[in-house]
């Protein structure tokens, strides 16, 4: 089995189109490819509790505002069609493809599409080497697909299924992977292009000295969650649901004491995170860059002092109010030659995160779906 080269991805997506699309129909499901999580259908004659967009009916409806530009659903579909899945726009009227706009795919696509525009805007008049940018994005796509394919092959082995995959199947899996994850790879590739990670030893040591607690440390936090997005798909709630969420958030903020002494009590009564509410909203320990949690949440937690409560933090799950409980240095790391590779990874990730968050802030990104 061979892994396709990244510069062949669009061609392979086109080749796989005829194989992939029929495989997604309810009559002939495709167990080889990961399925989108569909939204629960509303009861007959009942209005859906989250925003529903259809194509082409809503192609001119905004899905995000970035700076002075409103990004539309049609522009998002066109981008996916041209960059990641040729034929996607033409296939959109098919019910099984239309349902993607009410699945757990659409909200991440909107966020990532907005991030791309925000990063572009952050450069102003600074020229972009489009060839190098495309190369960086292709490298990220290839690496992530290889990791996913290795995991997929391992799962087949564990279940006793053949691990030798035909090239046709690999191509089909690649097409599906790029449709679902291509925008995320585009964003990461853009960040890799902007922050390539070529650091001198002195730069690494200065970063390590300034951020020593992030290496081997954890902050313990609690949170109160108010969901203004659908819990299953991440799509924004309809107007009535968002209004209730705003009222709930205002009530929570009014009930919280300035010193946070009743945080656990308010979390138990008001948090929408039912898994942690009964424990006062405690999430546990978070590393500075913790892939288990949204970067926005980790960033906010680490910027607090012990006992301090954050302003409202928005993630793909909803609005959070975070309380930092304490800090624990689990492992002590010294600046040595052996540690430099890990320090370089963290330094690059920190700088890329700063670039993205600054671009979002400067562009005042607003997600409308």
SSE blueprint:
Elements: H1 9-23, E1 62-66, E2 69-72, H2 73-83, H3 88-91, H4 95-98, H5 106-122, H6 130-158, H7 167-194, H8 201-210, E3 217-226, H9 239-255, H10 263-270, H11 274-277, E4 282-286, H12 295-303, E5 313-315, E6 318-329, H13 340-363, E7 366-367
Antiparallel strand pairs: 1-2, 1-7, 3-4, 3-6, 5-6
Helix pairs in contact: 1-7, 5-7, 5-13, 6-7, 8-13
Q: Can you offer a commentary on this structure?
A:
There is one protein chain. The chain has 13 helices and seven strands. The strands form two sheets. A four-stranded antiparallel sheet has the order 4-3-6-5, with helices on both faces. It has a three-stranded antiparallel sheet with strand order 2-1-7. It folds into two domains: 195 residues, no CATH class; 117 residues, Chitinase A, domain 3, CATH 3.10.50.40. A hairpin with a 2-residue loop joins strand 1 and strand 2. Helix content is 49%, strand content 11%. It is of the alpha+beta class. The protein starts with 8 loop residues before the first helix and ends with a strand. The longest helix is centred in the middle third of the chain and has 29 residues. Helix 6 packs across helix 7.
Shape verdict: globular
| Distinct helical segment count | 13
Approximately how much beta-strand content do the residues carry?
A: 5-15%
Q: Largest sheet, described in full?
A: 4 strands, antiparallel
Low-confidence stretches: 1-35, 41-45
Features of the shown structure:
2 domains; three-stranded antiparallel β-sheet; 7 strands; 13 helices; four-stranded antiparallel β-sheet; 369 residues; Chitinase A, domain 3; disordered N terminus; alpha+beta
């Amino acid at each position: 089995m061979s892994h396709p080269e990244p510069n062949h991805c669009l061609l392979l997506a086109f080749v796989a189109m005829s194989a992939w699309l029929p495989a997604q129909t309810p009559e002939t499901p495709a167990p080889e490819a990961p399925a989108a999580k569909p939204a629960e259908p509303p009861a007959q004659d009942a209005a859906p509790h989250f925003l529903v967009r259809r194509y082409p009916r809503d192609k001119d409806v905004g899905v995000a505002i970035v700076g002075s530009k409103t990004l539309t659903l049609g522009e998002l579909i066109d981008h996916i069609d041209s960059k990641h899945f040729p034929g996607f726009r033409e296939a959109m009227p098919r019910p099984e493809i239309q349902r993607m706009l009410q699945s757990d795919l659409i909200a991440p696509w909107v966020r990532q599409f907005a991030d791309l525009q925000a990063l572009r805007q952050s450069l102003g008049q600074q020229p972009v080497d489009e060839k190098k940018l495309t190369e960086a994005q292709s490298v990220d796509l290839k690496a992530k697909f290889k990791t996913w394919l290795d995991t997929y092959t391992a799962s087949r082995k564990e279940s006793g299924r053949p691990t030798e995959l035909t090239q046709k199947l690999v191509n089909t899996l690649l097409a599906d992977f790029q449709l679902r994850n291509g925008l995320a790879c585009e964003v990461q590739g853009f960040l890799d292009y902007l922050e390539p990670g070529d650091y001198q030893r002195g730069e690494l040591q200065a970063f390590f000295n300034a951020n020593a607690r992030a290496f081997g440390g954890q902050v313990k936090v609690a949170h109160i969650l108010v969901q203004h997005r659908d819990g299953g798909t991440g799509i924004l709630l309809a107007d009535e649901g968002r209004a209730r969420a705003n009222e709930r958030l205002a009530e929570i903020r009014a009930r919280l004491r300035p010193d946070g002494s009743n945080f656990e009590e308010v979390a138990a009564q008001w948090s929408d995170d039912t898994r942690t509410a009964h424990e006062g909203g405690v999430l546990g320990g978070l590393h500075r860059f913790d892939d288990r949690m949204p970067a926005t949440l980790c960033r906010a937690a680490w910027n607090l002092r012990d006992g301090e409560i954050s302003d409202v933090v928005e993630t793909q799950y909803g609005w959070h109010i975070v309380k930092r409980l304490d800090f624990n240095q689990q492992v002590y790391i010294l600046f040595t030659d052996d540690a430099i590779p890990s320090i370089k990874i963290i330094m690059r990730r920190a700088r890329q995160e700063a670039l993205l968050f600054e671009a979002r802030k400067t562009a005042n990104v607003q997600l409308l779906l």
